[in-house]
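Consider this:
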Amino acid sequence: MRNYLFLLLSALLFIVCKEANKNENKQEDTVQTLPFFNSADFTPEWIKKESKEYKNIHEIPHFSFLNQNGDTIGKKNYLGKIYVADFFFTTCTGICRSLSLNMKTLQEEFKNDPEVLLLSHSVTPEMDSVPVLKKYAENYGVDSKKWNLVTGEKEAIYELARTAYFSDEDFVKTKEASEFIHTENFILVDKKGRIRGVYNGTLKLGIKRLIKHIQLLKNEE
């Protein structure tokens, strides 16, 4: 009797999970327009072009860093492009490997698409020099025409992470400027430098959603 009840509960759980996944996929399929994100709480906002708020949508400000080849990379390199940004460090033994592998998945997915780029910022720039980033890039098969790993002034990178990409949850709580940034977020940015999506960069499901949303952005006028 006990085994029968266990099998029955397992079957019911399987059906519930299957229906939940089906509903989630159905909701994803009905998404036609991506929202904008204007604050650190990542509240999605659907703002129409004719709205007065449209001109005040949050944008990534100008920045200037060095990439793995020693080239200066700034906002001008990404304007007019859809891109995915994240924050990592080369000596990380935790989530960074998953982040980099999933960035590589995106690189492969859009390798022949000049509209889509990738941008990874080192949060330990004092250790991640250009040569260190170069070696890391080689280890992960980074295509420098598609994906930039950047280093620079720590204060500038941390300021960008916190106020531009809203990528430091702990900072919202502690306000400690020197605190170490560690986030699993992949940030989707549109051709005008506006945040259009936030994803868990360690999860395959998050990457699958991200790829779908990039395709949606490509269809925007």
